[in-house]
Amino acid sequence: MLTKSNIIIAIGIVIVLLGVLSLYFFWNPSQYDFFPKCPFYSVTGIYCAGCGSQRAIHQIINGHILTGIRHNYLLVLVFGVLSYKTLLFVLKKVHHKSYFDVLHIPIATKIILVLVLLFWTLRNIKMFPFTELAP
Fold it and tell me: Cα 116–119–120 angle (5° rounding)?
């Protein structure tokens, strides 16, 4: 059951999320210095799995979906997982019952981990076609 405090927390989260998304909507992270730079890339010169995500989010929320995805292909997996988890959360709240979560199967976690590590590794190979994975 939704309590008053849960509703207030949910509204606060939505407001913060909309505020952050509005930053990415109006300002391109590649053109402004107030967006944080990747500490892993800054120290090592190697792209991490998240490199390019800020630029990708900017492009996606401005309607340039393919350009955004090209900055970080892993966002497709992230959006898929977040959408799935959000759907399960909403269904649980609406129908007041739990649903089986495929992501809680150990093999699913291992597959996601392997995909992330594989993406992280391949995007740092300086040879075509792997250069297409770089942000």
Answer: 85
